[in-house]
Amino acid sequence: MPNCLWFLRMNTMNTLKCYTHLLVSIPPVVGIGDPMLQHGEILRSVLMEGNLQWLCYLSSTSVYGDCGGACVDEDYPTNPVNELAKLRLAAEQGWLNLAHDIGIAAHIFRLGGIYGPGRSAVDTIIKQGPLSESQKLRVTRQFTSRVHVADIYQALKASIHMPSSRRVYNVVDDDPAPRKEVFAYALDLVEKKWPALIKDFTSPPWEADSFIQKATSRGEKQVSNARMKKELAVKLLHPSYKSGLQSIIEQM
Ligand SMILES: NC(=O)c1ccc[n+]([C@@H]2O[C@H](COP(=O)([O-])OP(=O)(O)OC[C@H]3O[C@@H](n4cnc5c(N)ncnc54)[C@H](OP(=O)(O)O)[C@@H]3O)[C@@H](O)[C@H]2O)c1
């Protein structure tokens, strides 16, 4: 069985030789780290013989940690606080090193909270389910960086078409609004579109007090997207959650 697994893994790795562009969207795993970099040596030797020209690793703004409300650009010191964020930073470095070894530049995109059709405040309200643990932790934040999935696509496309020697880009929108504000806006959109849909919102899940203590211990930051706009010339389709949520509800 181990031989069979090894063969499968090698087969998968070997297919990478054919590709010119590699986008890594796999998050790190606690206790393991980056699942692909686990096989770093095989990966390196395979990619050395291949045609890779562009590599991008999707990371997270969590690598900055608690910044006391500061404006955070890509030169701001990283200070990840939890294990996942530490593994994330290690994964960034791992991909940068690997790309350097094979003679290409890797790009690290530090994403804010991703939202889009099927995964947004509008969807959460319509489902009327409880918030996930990570959503609860963000409830009382003054600033929450987010980005619409269409704008991640824009940034990726720009990075492919305008090769740059820069390594790290924050990919967030212009409006790091508090989650409560975003939900209030989403609720308004839903009520206007389907007046009878929401029956009981006297105590919406994102206003529950039970997790506030936990939430306030998390770090605040305002993440800057100036480098992405200046160097990749990205014009955000959704600079604020408002247009992003409107486009989502219009498509429903
Ligand atoms: N969602 C956010 O708000 C947010 C914010 C900042 C950064 N990020 C990061 O941006 C990246 C993309 O985000 P996302 O929300 O699209 O993530 P996601 O929904 O968790 O998707 C991750 C992808 O990685 C694959 N994957 C996970 N473990 C794997 C493994 N061991 N081997 C192979 N494939 C594996 C998953 O495959 P399956 O579908 O087969 O499971 C899935 O396609 C992730 O690294 C995420 O952590 C996300």
UniProtKB/TrEMBL annotation:
<dbReference type="InterPro" id="IPR036291">
    <property type="entry name" value="NAD(P)-bd_dom_sf"/>
</dbReference>
<dbReference type="GO" id="GO:0016853">
    <property type="term" value="F:isomerase activity"/>
</dbReference>
<keyword id="KW-0520">NAD</keyword>
<keyword id="KW-0413">Isomerase</keyword>
<dbReference type="InterPro" id="IPR001509">
    <property type="entry name" value="Epimerase_deHydtase"/>
</dbReference>
<feature type="domain" description="NAD-dependent epimerase/dehydratase">
    <location>
        <begin position="51"/>
        <end position="171"/>
    </location>
</feature>
<dbReference type="Pfam" id="PF01370">
    <property type="entry name" value="Epimerase"/>
</dbReference>
<comment type="similarity">
    <text>Belongs to the NAD(P)-dependent epimerase/dehydratase family.</text>
</comment>
<protein>
    <submittedName>
        <fullName>Uncharacterized protein LOC110416511 isoform X2</fullName>
    </submittedName>
</protein>
